[in-house]
Amino acid sequence: MLKQILSRLPKKVPKSDPSDSARSDSGNTTTFGNVFQCTNVGSTISSKLNVVKRVSSVVFPASMNAGVEAVDPHLSFKDVSNTQKQNLFISKLNLCCKVYDMSDPDKNCAEQDVKRQTLIELLDFLSSGSVKFTEPAISAMCKMCASNLFRVFPPKFRTGSTGGETEDEEPMFDPGWSHLQIVYDLLLQFINCNSLDLKVAKIYIDHTFVLRLLDLFDSEDPRERDCLKTILHRIYGKFMVHRPFIRKSVSNIIYRFVFETERHNGIAELLEIFGSVISGFASPLKEEHKIFLLRALIPLHKPKSVGIYHQQLTYCVVQFIDKDPKLASTVIRGLLKYWPVTNSQKELMFISELEEVLEMTSLAEFQKVMGPLFRRLSCCLNSSHYQVAERAHLLWNNEHILNLITQNRQVILPIVFSALVHNTQNHWNQAVLNLTQNVRKMISQMDEDLVLACQHKLEEEDSKSSAAAEMRRMTWERLEAAANVQSVAC
């Protein structure tokens, strides 16, 4: 009986061998994502905003360095034989994995200089084309880049900031850029290397690596974002297996920016990458790409900081219409949905983008949206902000847009005629008055009978409005008289 009871008790699980944890389920292949471990290293964040909290390097299994002969990393490549250069290259990469607190230039000054000189040596050696990227070398390179680049940025403390740099704000520069720049150059040279075995490299430049690179686009240092833009574009072009993941991850960044935080420093750079990506899409467009336009690009018109990235956003939108002209009406509806009501500078940007879209719009797509479009433009024609009114009038000088209006004048002229008359009678700016007179001449030459009909209709509406106003006045007079009689009687 005692033996039966003891046999039912849970047995103590023996501690696993640490070496077993380094083995994956699929043989000896260990992916970058499976071995990624993050721990905080270095000193505490200083009071300076541009100091970042470092994250420790990627922990690669020790088996990767098995069979690699240890070489003193302080030796020069000229001092070793050709057979040892590969091992020296790996030793120097491992030496550069150590990260220093660059916010204090006097701290570890000698070690920082040694590391910088070593990074320069690595870059020169890589540029010479003498490197053969074996798996241990690829592993060491990715480990070194991860140690130095992947880090967590401190919260943004700028008051009134909506994410990204504005014209009035000075960009903030990372104190460790003297090291970071060389590491970025090394990573770019590594990815561009023609002898790189992509089948091996994608084990280490995997989804986790790409995701951490995308996180760095929120850096406040414009130099770093520019380097990241080039590197991500190269990865997208070279590692075809990562393309869907990159598109999905960038979409998630945009969703978070538009619908949650409205704070991100790298939206312009990400859109610049996607401008060239969209131009490479095959026609007809996949449904996934159309969804990216509808759910990511069009909502990007909503944030207040749209001016920072509007030029890149417009380019992406125009590229989509160039690939599929039927998307023009969809884009115009999106612009009308997010049209600014109280921000005149943003309204100017929308009108400029609208002109570029209309230039690529066919007659059939234009007819789908011309009603709500010109109701919005008639409000712009009447805007008390003279630049908005001026820009709306100048749309009529565009030959393609004027041709679209002419072919649909029966619908459009009755919508805008009252706005033009109102400007002639009431607008305060002389330049807008002159433009209004020019537009009225255009529409008279376009269809004089229709203009006269619009004029008669407007006069009838004005007379009805005057009659209604007179009736309201008389009604109020009777009510006031009745009220006075009652007060006297009381």
What would you say this structure looks like, in words?
With 490 residues, the protein is an all-alpha fold. Among the domains are: 29-154 and 173-203, Alpha Horseshoe (Leucine-rich Repeat Variant), CATH 1.25.10; 206-323. Helix content is 63%, strand content 1%. It is built from 21 helices and two strands. The chain has helices at residues 2-8, 18-21, 82-95, 109-127, 135-149, 177-192, 198-204, 207-215, 222-238, 243-261, 267-279, 287-297, 306-323, 328-337, 344-359, 363-381, 386-394, 399-407, 409-426, 430-446, 448-489, and strands spanning 53-54, 151-152. A two-stranded antiparallel ribbon has the order 1-2. Helix 6 (177-192) packs parallel to helix 9. The protein is elongated.
Strands, helices and their partners?
Elements: H1 2-8, H2 18-21, E1 53-54, H3 82-95, H4 109-127, H5 135-149, E2 151-152, H6 177-192, H7 198-204, H8 207-215, H9 222-238, H10 243-261, H11 267-279, H12 287-297, H13 306-323, H14 328-337, H15 344-359, H16 363-381, H17 386-394, H18 399-407, H19 409-426, H20 430-446, H21 448-489
Antiparallel strand pairs: 1-2
Helix pairs in contact: 3-4, 3-5, 4-6, 5-6, 6-9, 8-10, 9-11, 10-12, 11-13, 13-15, 14-15, 14-16, 15-17, 16-17, 16-19, 17-20, 18-19, 19-20, 19-21, 20-21
Question: Portion of residues in helices?
Answer: 55-70%
**SS element count, helices:** 21
Q: Identify low-pLDDT runs.
A: 12-63, 158-163
Oligomer: single chain
Mean pLDDT: 85
